[in-house]
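Order emerges. One example.
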Amino acid sequence: MPKLIITENPEKWNLNFEGVDVISPSEYFSKPEYQETKRFKIINLCRSHQYQSLGYYVSLLAEARGHKVIPEIGTLQDFRFPSLIKDDAEEFDVLIQNSLKKVTEEKAVINIFFGQVENPAYANLGVMLFNLFQIPIIQAVFVKKEKNKWQLHSLKPLHLKELAAGDISKLQEALYYYATGKKVVRKKYSRKKYDLAIMMSPDDPNPPSNAKALQKFIAAADKLGFNAEVITKNDFGKLVQFDALFIRETTNVNHYTYRFAKKAESEGLAVIDDSNSILKCTNKVYLHELLVAHKIAVPKSHIIRKDDHQIPPDFNYPLVIKQPDGSFSKGVKKVADEAQLKETLKTLFQKSELLIIQEFVPTAYDWRVGVINNAALYVCKYYMAQNHWQIVDWKKNGEHREGKSETLAVEDAPKALIDTALKATSLIGSGLYGVDIKEINGKFYVIEINDNPNIDAGVEDKVIKNGLYMKVMETFVERLHKR
């Protein structure tokens, strides 16, 4: 992708980077060749990016033209709300503490030029902050609080006019490596080949991946040549600037995650979870019919309609009633008799015309087989919550208790379990799935297929550790190479 460095006085920069042109804002605004194609990556190095400045309009027009630009308008706007920036940084507290643990002063000021920093001890922190916030020049200020714990005090973009004379040469060096993709040997940091958006929700109390797992995904992406950026539901307009989208929040068809997946696919991005997987996996009625049609064993089940509550005579209590689009064990109710059944159906039929009814099969645990790209990724046993019939025991106040878990090596799991999981997911696609399976008298029954399975640090990664995150990212690389 051709690269353009845009700055007010190109002649003063004296840059001669292979594959990179240095032009002025007026050239970018007016020349037809910059308006007629989307195949440009813009590095906006104007003196200021303040609202309605030249730098602001460079980024604004770049986004309107479909060019990939740094910094983006949305990112510049985010910096108007420092509390949001600090909240984002808290997700990576471990990295902050490790990077600053040898600092004896009470305050640390770090200038980051395209992810590079002068002090090698801050190298990983500089890369992380740049990947998160995508500003060419960032100044991060950390202060030491109680118990010697470091906290981000402020994070702000720096403009050219704010740099000291000695900083210009550091900026030009960092710009060279960023623009050309050359390797920075002394800092073991190379410019990235692809742009990956990792979508998450800071408001989700039960996200599919915890903060540490997100860190590990970003670290794996970094090693494989991705510039990873965390995005939220407010970043729909930014999708065109990425090569791949990894959704790490709870999905549903009637939800913005589905719209993000569809939009990303229409723009040619590699996507996990893809919209087809979201569509098929988030509806238990569809999954039931699909599995039965392909003769994959499921618990004894029956679909009931809102206009016909008839239960087959050979079904015995207790029964389990499932809402088609429930997740994380929500929307699943157990009933002990006909009176409870009527009351439960009355409630659940308010949300759906169809429900699934199953005979209750008690087990001490459910199997979960993680699958990606038609291969088993991990195997877990999720035990039922204490004194409860489900893995997650949801309380009326929204709190919950979970059962313990046990992670196995894929090769140590029963072969029939793995074969069942792979046969089931082959009906959906080749994305990332978690197949919930019950084992009854040595036979395996598919409960459901999750398109957005949990991957939490310390649980699903317990056996292959960082290899799990690398396998997910390798799938993205493979798909981008094919593209």
